[in-house]
Amino acid sequence: MDTTDAVFTSLLEDNAEELYEHAPCGYLSTLMDGTIAKINATLLDWLGLDRSRVVGRMRFTDLLTVGGKLYHETHFAPLLQMKGEVSGIAMDLKAAAGRRMPVLVTSQVKTSGDGEPLLIRTTVFDARDRRAYETELLRGRQVAEEARRRSEADRERLQEALAILQQSLLPPELPAVPGVQAASYYHTASPDLLGGDFYDLFPLGSDRWAFFLGDVCGKGPQAAAVTSLARHTLRASALHDADPVTVLTMLNTVLHERQQGGDGRFCTAIFGVLEPRDGHVAVHLASGGHPSALIQRADGSADFLPTPGGMLIGVLPQASFTGAHTELLPGDTLLLYTDGLTEARTGPERELYGDDALRAFAAAQPPAGPQALITALSGLLTSFGEGLDDDTALLALGVPAPTPTTATEELT
Prior knowledge:
Number of helices: 11
Largest sheet: 5 strands, antiparallel
Order of helices and strands: HHEEHHHEEEHEEEHHEEEEEEEEHHEH
Helix content: 25-40%
């Protein structure tokens, strides 16, 4: 017989009493009233008790903490009486020196041949490592939850700061222009990103008003810095010389010089001048790489105002820009927008919304003025949902339609 066989044989020769007393779990048997009739050495060692003080003198509930006793009376004992066994119940035992020992308890009622209950056999498993693991797991979850709450709070503060900064790049409200109605809207695609779209409307003097709308490439603080520079350059240049081509040329010079310093950002923009006259408004504008303005006429038609050939602003030291003239009659509305609108993705194929769809949409709206058109477009932007991944700025300028006269007024 080799060594392995000898060891195996010695294990088989362990007597049942030895296996009971020094099992890796606790064993005890109680009478039906809970009095402990038998308990193994393993459980006694865990609790720091002498057998003589336990057997015949203590009940199973005497080994439990106050909470354990309450649970035993309200749940454990009734379940055991009803089912004849309970398994894997988490409890705490009272150990030496006032320590609490977490355990898992399984009990089974032994019955006679006639089915009469005789005693209760209970197995107790040490759950200290498990409790420590659960405690650590709970602590980890609490730490993760706290980190999540802090992250959400930080994100909310960041979004609030970005929203305030975004608003600072736009006029707080549009001024009242005699003989002209104006409306605007800014749609933020993501509250976590600072956009580069901008617009403005301001007086030039001599009954003339300047307007512009543009889009700086990219997002974030650097785009915001270029946006602020573009707005201030356009306003300052217009007060010096309001010719739209001249104003865009000045902006091109300023942004190109900034590019020489390492910032490669450029922008697109439309700049124009309004001159209200008797019954209509003359519009002179120029475009630098920007989508053409759209005119919704009082008769219900809609079409783009061609400004071909305008170059991106800030890319080249010398850039050419295209000017255009038009007149807005009563009921007409001029719409300026950034490409977040026409480049939105729609439908299951995520196709570009496009210029033709925008023109058809404008033509389908009743010619009720700038605010009505902006309201309709804001609803359209919202309907794009996740298909709208870029900020969109809208600026609409129009001449009020004449108020219809009633028959009574005509007679008067």
